Input
Amino acid sequence: MDDLAHIIGNNLAELRKRKRLTQQELSQEIGYSDKSLSKWELGNAMPHIDVLKTIADYYGVTVDFLITDGAARSKKNEIQEEKTNRNKIVITCMAATFILLCGVVIYVYNLIAVEDTKSWVYFFWCAPICFFITAFLDFRFWGRNLGFWILTSLFVWTLLLAVCLHIFIYEGDQLWYLFLVGIPVQIGIFLFSRLK
Output
């Protein structure tokens, strides 16, 4: 019984600290004295089941969560991991945005300084570069997952498209048969994705 009181106490203290509340502030929120909260958190006493239900509802957890050893600490780790994943996504989006910004700068420079009216084709080069960088970051952050293989495939096909369009716009040659190269490469990507 003492172990259960300490488990509940540790979880209650962890949840309260995560919400950045003092015992007095929490006592006003849930309607129990701060002395009772102190006893519960120290494991010197155990709240009744109806009080546990009130506290669980306040924190948005279950009563089972409150009586499970280390539940609040594991929840803290999940929240930290979620924040880290969000940061990784933001970093990936920032890298893609930077590449698009470089494409705009190159386009404007060619339009103004070189007076190249065909420079819009450089935007097509942004796509394979974006997919390459995002695939690289995806691999670094999450390993070989489905997103990595999709981004790798998009890199290959947009690279072929950029080459074909660039040659067509500047040279007038139609090299659409280059897309045939993409078929075995795509098959290779698929087979590599199946390796364990």
Remarks:
- The chain has a mean pLDDT of 85.
- Residues 21 and 115 are 63 Å apart (CA to CA).
